[in-house]
Amino acid sequence: MLELAGIIILGILAQWMAWRLKIPAILPLIIIGLLVGPIATLYMDAKIIEPIWNGEKGLFPGDSLFYFVSLAISIILFEGGLTLKRAEILNTGPVIGKLISIAVLITFIGGGVSAHYIFGLSWKISLLFSALIIVTGPTVITPILRNIPLKKDLSSILKWEGILIDPIGALFAVLVFEFISAGAGGEFTLVALEEFGKIVLFGFTFGFSFAHALVFSIKKKLIPHYLLNVFTLAAVLGVFVLSDAFAHESGLLAVVVMGMVMGNMNLPNLKELLYFKESLSVLLISILFILLSANINMEDLYLIYRWETAVLFAIIAFVIRPLGVFASSTNSGLQTNEKLFISWVGPRGIVAAGIASLFGSKLVSQGVEGAEYITPLVFMIVLGTVLLNATTARLFAKMVGVFLEKSNGIMIVGASKFSRIIASYLKDHGRSVVLVDTNANNIRVAKEQGLDAITADIYSDSISDDIEFNNIGFLLALTGNSQINDYALERFSERFGENGAYRLVHSTEINNPNKNSDAGLFSATDDYVNMMEVARYHGKIHEMAIKSQDHFKGLIEITKTDNDIIPLFVRNDNKIDIIPSMALDLEIEEGSVLAYLGKEIIEKETGEVIMDKESS
Fold first, then answer.
1. Packing angle of the helix pair 350-365, 152-182 (nearest 10 deg)
2. Which pLDDT tens digit goes with each residue over 193-221?
């Protein structure tokens, strides 16, 4: 009981430590597992945590550890399948499409050839090893890149490669393993091919059929809401076991397919399922990797304690990865320094290590020659790439010139009509803008207008963890709820507002403009309601040349007295300054123009300012 409780406590502490240090959780989890497992035997008589019963101590008797690992991996892969959207694959662009096809093929072939000739492994084991190291995964990419400001396109490529390749790589590894299992103990005869065909047939059939059956049950409300998550969990485990009963080793394929099918159907409760599965996956991963690392023996580590291991790692990290990236990004518009950075960042993740332990152990029990190398070699690649990228990615970004010294992107919280008008203006003048809102209709309209917009809740962690926002340096809170605006600044000013964080003035502040907050935005006399009214009746941004500092102050005074004019920005070529509510301190450079929303201001040759009669 003490060992089991200790694993859970150590696992959650490792997750917390990873969050605090902004490193992938897999790193402290594996290190803790090695410390309480094989490394402990160097100074003690036995492991501190012994996963398998050895006659004296151990948590799992016989093969039950691997049953637990199989079930846990099935849940993790199901969650990965849920995140894979067909539309995202089609819309991610040619570079990402090639990274999950051409680069995968290069890694598979190159890694297999390298393992075969460097370690002398059989082609079956070499190709399984190369299939396992295909997977990167968002759980390792995100912590490494979270604090490296990069161009949005660069961050997007790395993010979507990790998300898309996770289930695709897992599916690839499962298929290779099942092909090996079908022919284990002999050559790939017709019988082995038939067995492989059965695995694929039952895996796809059960995954597809039960996904539709579960979605039908959820939509028809045959499952009460409070049982939805646990019922889905039971269904996933049931499909895994049932498929495996019909065709041995087809269960993992079935749950990946089940997740992919459900993730691409119109399922109203999908977000709830994802949140539940994500929380469950965190707990399972915490337990799983301490157990799997602790289960490694010193003999396994001594197997790879040789110079060939360093050579294999170097070839995979510094030859095969760059080769795959450069082949995938030909004629893509990416600069050479950007290709070099993508080549450098390729950490292997949780799915690779988890499946490697499961498959390696199963093949060892089947007596497959060389199978004992699978787990330690994959763990070496995982630990090596994560350590390399976690310690050097920021420095390498600076060395090759992709590190953004100043983040000029703008995040707008709220995607109302007023926000969309502002975002369109900023985008037209070369600024990177993203709109965030919980209102799906606002986001849909924004996307139809060609704006970058996401449906997200600022109270969740998904926004701060999204590496696509690494180029954001300005935060504008433009919702109609002053509490949400205040919260957005309080929570995200440090993350997204390093160059400026602003919010609309509160309705209570309009009555006393001189006591506006320093974070007040645009106008001290206009709150959300006023701005929406102006956007509704005068929804166009005009520009007027600013002749001097006094001229600017005069224009600002005019906007204060006219409710149909709202000052927004001072632009000089592509340099855009956001106007705070206390705008008179803004320094005006020669050639600047005032961008404002509302009625057009017309200035006579005499200098007298009048309003456009048609607008009024």
1. 10
2. 777 788 788 888 999 999 999 989 888 88
